[in-house]
Amino acid sequence: MLVVPLSQVSAADIALAGGKATGLGELIRLGERVPDGFCVTTEAHRRGALPETEVRAAYEALGGGPVAVRSSATAEDLAGASFAGQHLTVLDVTGPEAVLAAIAECWESLHGERARAYRDARGVGHDTVRMAVVVQRMVQAETAGVLFTANPVTGRRTEMMVESAAGPGTSVVDGCGPVSRRILADGAAMPELWALGERLQRHRGSPQDVEWAIDPAGTLWVLQSRPITTLFPAPPASDDPRVYVEFGHVQGMLRPVTPMGMATLKDVISAMLASLGVRAEIVDIGGRLYGDLTDLARHPATRNRLVKLMAVDFGPRAQAAMEHVLTDPRFAPVKGGSTRSAGSPATAFRALTGIIRALARPAAARARVAEAVARLAGEDGAVQEDGHVRAAIASGDDKSGLPTSIHSPTSPTPSTSSASPASTGSPASTKSPASTRSPGFVRSPASSASSASTGSPASTGSPASTNSSGASDSDDLTWPIVAGMLASALPGRLLDGVVTDDEIHTVLGGLPHNVTIEMDLALWRLADAARDHADLLLGTPPTDLAGLYLSGGLPDIGLGAFLDRYGHRAAAEADLGVPRWSEDPAPVFAAIANYLRLADLDQAPDRRFARAAERAEAALADLAVRARRRRPVRGALAVFLLRRARELAGLRESGKFAGLYRLAADRRRLLETGARLVAAGRLAEPADIMFLTPGEAAAAARAAAESVPDPAGRHTGSPSGSPGETSLTTDAGIADLPAVVAARKAWYQAECLRRHVPPVLLSDGTDVEAALAANRHFSDREPPSGQEGDTTKATLTRQEGDTTRATPTRQEGDADKGTLTNPEHGSDRNAPLEREHGSDGGTPFGWERGSDGVAALGVLRGVGASAGRVTGRARIIHDPGTARVEPGEILVVATTDPGWTPLFLTAAALVTETGAIMAHGPTVAREYGMPAVISVPGATRLIADGQVVTVDGAAGTVTTAL
Known about the structure:
By secondary structure, the protein is of the alpha+beta class. The protein has 33 helices and 23 strands. Among the domains are: 138 residues, ATP-grasp fold, A domain (Dna Ligase, domain 1), CATH 3.30.1490.20; 198 residues, Phosphohistidine domain (Glucose Oxidase, domain 1, 3-Layer(bba) Sandwich), CATH 3.50.30.
């Protein structure tokens, strides 16, 4: 079939008619008013010859006259990718010859540079896409535009946005002329459009981007409806406004979490909060971990402390967003109620005594931390409790090479976490609470469920480890770490006006006893010793080196010993579903190659670290003299705390380090279960088990033990598991396991491409940071009135023709081509900066403003986190796996965790889009004395790879060389 009427196209015809045509056919079936037309199918495109006879006949059947010729690729107008603006649309085409020529142009646009770049960015194979073409009658529009059924700037689901212009609406779609915009809170002002939006969103099940036109007779025509692909998933529906904070920011983890990792982390975080006496529901939104902090925000005793918590743990962007939330009348203080769980007085007493004890005897505190880590590591068998590990951590001379990291220590004590009902967001989050918990797994096909935990130690239910005095590992790990953090934070307040933040940062540089630093330096020493193999290590891609190493095809460079000690590490390592370095050492080989390119040995990491430590001691000595002279009592206390900070603050990585040993053991056991499911024909590969919830995996393992393997992977025995435990056993059956995994993996890979994760969300979908930035932006100008003669005929609440003018789903293929042109006067008024609403919290948040309120050209402002000034070429990195960072380059990233830190050893400075001053990235930057600027919204888009920039860690600015 080469040409079909649009009225005969259904959703099932996506492979034949493409996304746009099937969407239009669906609208026709719904009874919407859609211009008549036909579709030239993908079969014609596959054959490579225009079906001239069929096209002429179909065009004549329309009555001739002007038509619109529009692409309809098979990957177009879908929920995961709109392909808006990537393929060709030709308007006002008249005559059969012109129609045929326009169809040929649409075919050619499939292979255009812009479309190819868009597919590459989203992992869509070029050979998997076919092109159909839609030909429709032109609507002679008096007014046309776009209706968004949710606010595309703020994400608010209770609002709609209308953009319109006189004529056919090309200025709205292309952003090439004045556009009128309205925000609608209800249907009073524009009832017909509001009703249309409600109908289409209800039918499609998601917010829609609807193109429409009104002809001279006043008839409303629907030209297209597709999902708004840039919206962040909405939180669970709630009649009562709720505020959610994204917890991944604390760990420098913005990528989505696998379903198995989500279940584990929910338990861990719930247990950790409970141990601190805090009640907060943990929910899955868009595959990210959000905490419902509404009660804390409304409670008079905790709301102010909540803002301080945002500043310390989540960073200035989250702090600003939370401050904005607290001005909202819906979150006004409410008397009564409690935000704390039972037993918090006991927790407070343990905290107080533990902190005082650590400050009084820091060496003994380090020894207790080392013993707790060794016990937890020894239980996994990874490190034996032979005293070597304890001595290494206690002394800071970690010759054994223990792993690393954490901002908030993972509690190894058992705790009954409150049920955390899964929310909307990730595909695995629609299960009952039973499917998201962490039950045991089947050890072998014939065995019963074992007690092996899939979660953190907090969810095992096994007795807590204790030291010789009976204290729990949780106390031994937590309070020395907290003491170090307090000792780092308080001196700045005590000496406000006497010393600067930069001086405090210098004193806290080159800290000993940090296991992450020890890991990085161990890898540096390995690379330095492997210079005899430099040609091989530099000339072979890291992924190939990893394959050779795992197959035994590489010379011995000492990597085996390194991985024995650190192989359970990885970027985003808090997610149980992420492969460890021992499984995929490509990131390690990439780091080794970076180190081998370092020619100036004076910039060697160990020397940089030593210099940072020397500067710290000198700065502390100078500060002590001034502080005691200016403020004798406070000065003495501040100096005491800073000395204790240098002895204890490096321990902050030890809590997560201890938990990661358990996590690595859990992952190995899960992969063993996954291998048995592969042998039973139920999974394609062992790691697919990470895309199941614990309940689903347990049900699949039990079913595999009770049934005979089937070549097609179908279940041949009786499903086990309690009714309602998982959708696999009750709704679709075990036979759908491969399909479930495939769908979740596709969703996960698509979410990995998301560059902006809102730090604070409201239950109506509002991205608070984006809303705050938009309000600041529009407050700088006088609101314009509606265009004379335009159907909106009203004063708009948003500026016409301003930097948020174009729609978020337009021209998405250029999303990575942003430049630092002035948003008001730049040559490209359609730059991604103006297009992608909410992608970085809005332009004003990231651009330094001049006295006239206009963004200063070439200057990005964030927060200085490590003093120093350096100029170099920017290196934009989204995945540390195979990243190449040349010596002296500026590392520009969205976020970092300890798995990223090997890249720091060759970088000259660090720029991040997120983070707090005490987060992993800036902390390690200070250890090496490298300048760092954090919380620079949109830095990875606004700075071009290879662009020369100057990073000023004291001023908190990133300036481009113009």
